[in-house]
Q: What sequence folds into this?
């Protein structure tokens, strides 16, 4: 009996010891699991923080990428505008260069026309000087050859005379020879007179007198020396056209400004074709 009780006691003690060991092991396992759970939670929290930081970084990068795309698009647009602007500027510069070249041609054509006109005037001046010598004061004024002959040489000492002196006809004959050698030249005969009184009722005033004196010269050139009347114009200036107290008749040769401008226009037209 005692053996049975002893055995039972030993068995109980053994069982209790085993159960105590199992409980201890179980508690250790629970403690281990708790530690692992705590560690896992900490790692999970850390991972969530990292994930949040990563998401924030990704959002920032996406925003930067968006900005970069917009900036790139703006740059491309600006580059296109700049290219177009540069192209227009280049075209404008090219047009400006063409315009300058055209103007240079036009200026050259004008200079050529002026040179040609000056050459014609010089030739006319030379011919007239050779023909008249010292019989008249000869010069160039406003692009025309001007002959100035005192009225006393043309009409004598009578300041109201409209009859040419013989010496005057000799001068006009020489002039006609020069004019007929250059049939393209135009002539204006400008009468200037400053007679003091007009008791003779055949003349009204200096306007009348200067016009008649100029007309007499033109008629003489036409009838006696065969100068084409279509080339000649009469102009009476009265006493208001006189350059000095002693009046003189002026013969203006080749005041063909219309032909000069026509020459310039033609040269400019030819220059634009070139």
A:
């Amino acid at each position: 009996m005692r053996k049975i009780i002893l055995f039972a006691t030993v068995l109980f003690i053994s069982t209790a010891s085993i159960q105590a060991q199992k409980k201890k092991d179980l508690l250790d396992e629970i403690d281990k699991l708790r530690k692992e759970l705590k560690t896992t939670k900490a790692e999970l929290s850390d991972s969530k923080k990292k994930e949040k930081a990563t998401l924030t970084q990704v959002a920032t990068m996406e925003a930067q990428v968006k900005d970069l795309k917009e900036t790139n698009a703006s740059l491309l647009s600006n580059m296109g505008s700049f290219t177009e602007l540069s192209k227009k500027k280049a075209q404008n510069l090219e047009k400006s260069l063409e315009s300058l070249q055209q103007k240079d041609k036009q200026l050259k054509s004008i200079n050529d026309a002026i040179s040609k006109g000056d050459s014609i005037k010089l030739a006319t001046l030379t011919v007239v000087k050779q023909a008249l010598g010292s019989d008249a004061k000869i010069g160039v004024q406003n692009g025309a050859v001007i002959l100035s002959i005192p009225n006393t040489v043309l009409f004598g000492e009578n300041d109201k005379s409209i009859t040419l002196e013989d010496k005057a006809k000799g001068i006009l004959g020489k002039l006609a020879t020069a004019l007929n050698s250059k049939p393209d030249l135009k002539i204006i005969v400008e009468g200037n007179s400053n007679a003091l009184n007009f008791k003779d009722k055949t003349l009204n005033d200096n306007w009348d007198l200067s016009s008649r004196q100029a007309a007499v010269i033109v008629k003489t050139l036409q009838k006696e020396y065969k100068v084409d009347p279509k080339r000649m114009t009469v102009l009476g200036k009265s006493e208001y056209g006189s350059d000095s107290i002693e009046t003189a008749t002026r013969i203006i040769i080749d005041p063909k400004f219309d032909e000069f401008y026509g020459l310039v226009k033609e040269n400019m037209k030819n220059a634009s074709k070139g």
The longest helix spans residues 2-132. The longest strand covers residues 144-150. The chain has a mean pLDDT of 76.
